[in-house]
Design brief:
Protocatechuate 4,5-dioxygenase, Chain B, 39% helix, 6-stranded mixed β-sheet, 22% strand, two-stranded parallel sheet, binds (3E)-3-iminooxepin-2(3H)-one, binds fe (ii) ion, 303 residues
């Protein structure tokens, strides 16, 4: 009998600014801080995760873009230097991570069984993208758990948001089945921003918070609508409006991370915990958790 399960999921945005602001030893550039509301949100997420027993982190990243299907890291250990191509002034990070290859292979097989195009990434020199690294770092700066990283395929861009979302629903289901089958207790991270319209110029001091705000009010209203549905546990409704949100808020959900997460969690109906919301270079970002032990206990207590 299988004992594996997803113990928690989180919307875990990856602006490089958040790691830059924390000044961890792995990141070369130094900062004077900034974006505290989001960073304190991650701090609160980490506190809740510390009460949760999990043994692997799975992350779906918009910045590992693959043209042909869904790729999975499948090298037991990866290290190197990852540089954000847009913000090399903020993110030059020396990474060193372990990968749960057995779980990656199980997802690969479950995806193929659902007619998804799947590939294993077996190049030991592979440079891991900043989206994967940042969400994992902010959720677990100790890097003491192995990860499985999932790429973002191009279906949303080549066909439509609806088709992309349909594939992510199947990939989420495949991910859950593989976790159950391999007996893992898993934390899942959807590494993405919400509204994603950003400034086209950077202020002289990137962490000058007097310059930071959402690009425009319409983006903020869309973000609040989506967050409200998460807070109310209405994630199936959220999936219904996600294609429109993706289009109108120019959202990074177009890379599939959030749809994958909600599908893997089987569309949770308990209220999500919103740990923080804030803008980064004009984009809207929320740190949100669906922690099974906390969420389902709250629902039981309220009955
Ligand atoms: O990749 C990103 C992002 N998604 C949001 C904000 C700023 C920079 O990089
Ligand atoms: Fe991004």
């Amino acid at each position: 009998m299988s004992t594996g399960r997803i113990v928690a999921g989180a919307l875990a945005p990856h602006p490089p600014h958040l790691v830059y602001a924390e000044n961890p030893p792995q990141n070369e550039p130094r900062s004077e801080g900034g974006w505290e509301v989001l960073r304190w949100g991650y701090e609160r997420l980490r506190k809740d995760l510390a009460k949760t027993d999990y043994d692997v982190i799975l992350v779906h990243s918009p910045h590992w873009k693959t043209r042909t299907g869904n790729h999975l890291l499948a090298v037991p250990q990866l290290s190197g230097l990852s540089v954000d191509p847009i913000f090399p002034n903020l993110f030059r990070y020396t990474f060193d991570m372990k990968v749960d290859v057995e779980l990656a292979k199980a997802i690969h097989a479950e995806g193929q069984a659902r007619k998804l195009e799947m590939s294993l990434m077996e190049n030991p020199e592979f440079r891991v993208d900043y989206g994967t690294i940042i969400s994992c770092h902010l959720a677990n700066p100790a890097w003491d758990k192995p990860i499985v990283a999932v790429s973002s395929n191009s279906t949303y861009f080549d066909f439509s948001n609806e088709m992309g979302q349909d594939e992510m629903a199947r990939l989420g289901e495949a991910t859950r089945a593989a976790i159950e089958q391999t007996g893992r207790k898993a934390l899942l991270l959807a590494s993405c921003s919400l509204s994603h319209r950003h400034f086209t110029t950077e202020s002289e001091l990137p962490e000058d918070m007097s310059k930071e705000h959402i690009t425009h009010h319409g983006q903020y209203l869309w973000d609040m609508r989506v967050i409200e549905l998460m807070k109310q546990g209405r994630t199936r409704e959220l999936m219904d409006i996600l294609p429109d949100f993706t289009e109108q808020a120019i959202s990074e959900t177009k890379d599939g991370s959030l749809a994958w997460l909600l599908a893997a969690l089987d569309y949770p109906s308990f209220p999500a915990e919103v740990y923080g919301y804030g803008s980064v270079i004009g984009t809207g970002n929320a740190v949100v958790g669906w922690i099974q032990s906390i969420g389902t206990a709250n629902v039981a207590n309220s009955r």
